[in-house]
Specification:
Blueprint (H helix, E strand, L loop, with lengths): L3 H33 L2 H31 L4 H36 L14 H21 L2 H29 L6 H33 L15 H4 L1
Helix pairs in contact: 1-2, 1-3, 1-4, 2-3, 3-6, 4-5, 4-6, 5-6
Length: 234
């Protein structure tokens, strides 16, 4: 018969997966938003972010309660540590998706979004596709305890960083000839930055999964910027 604390651990794992699935759904909706230019999608993304916030609170409370009531073995301690850190990253992904939706909604309402041609958004849709794939793979890696998949997620973050840099340079160049469209272009710069941050959070999740599965700490191993460095490198 399953012991009570094992059921609690499974409950925490299931809530992490549920929370991550909601973040994946919202990120996928962001990509759909760029394609369809639909105000309703903006509002749905913003509304659904609240569910992600509530799941973070639930998981944090369950994790603290578990550590308080039981004497977990090392692998369980790693799961709890990963849960607390990972839910923060997932919550931030939800926030970034909501921020993008709000910026797009402002552009719609002011009728300032560039034309329907995807090239007007430069590399934003491509970066979003990569960030979404990274997030999905990070969650799959947690479910499957697949360390190799985690390392693949970490490696792909550089692609999104490069696209964000190209977007910044491209929008900056357009500012010189499109001064009347300056506010819209700056919104797109910030949207691109939000996509980069989603990829950063997906990378962090992958690193935490490696720690959970193997006990190996990647944040200060030289394998990409650490969590503490994100404020410097974005």
């Amino acid at each position: 018969m399953e012991r009570y604390y094992e059921a609690e651990l499974k409950g925490i794992q299931q809530d992490i997966i549920l929370m991550a699935e909601k973040a994946i759904f919202n990120t996928r909706r962001v990509l759909e938003l760029f394609e369809k230019r639909d105000r309703d999608i903006c509002r749905q993304i913003i509304a659904e972010d609240e569910e992600i916030d509530q799941l973070e609170l639930k998981i944090d409370q369950a994790a603290v309660q578990y550590m308080t009531l039981y004497q977990p073995v090392s692998v369980d301690v790693r799961l709890i540590a990963m849960a607390i850190k990972t839910t923060h990253d997932i919550e931030r992904i939800g926030d970034e998706a909501s921020s993008i939706a709000k910026r797009m909604l402002r552009l719609f309402e002011r009728d300032e979004l560039p034309g329907d041609n995807r090239s007007e958004m430069l590399g934003i849709p491509e970066a979003t596709s990569i960030a979404l794939a990274m997030l999905k793979d990070a969650v799959d890696a947690f479910i499957e305890k697949d360390v190799a998949k985690c390392h693949s997620v970490v490696d792909r973050d550089a692609e999104v960083d490069s696209l964000n840099h190209e977007n910044f340079e491209g929008f900056l160049e357009r500012l010189t000839s499109e001064r009347d469209n300056a506010e819209a272009l700056m919104e797109l710069v910030l949207i691109s930055k939000s996509i980069e941050r989603i990829a950063d959070h997906a990378k962090n999740i992958a690193r935490e999964v490696v720690y959970y599965v193997t006990g190996e700490e990647l944040r200060h191993s030289g394998k990409g910027p650490s969590r503490s460095e994100r404020g410097v490198q974005g």
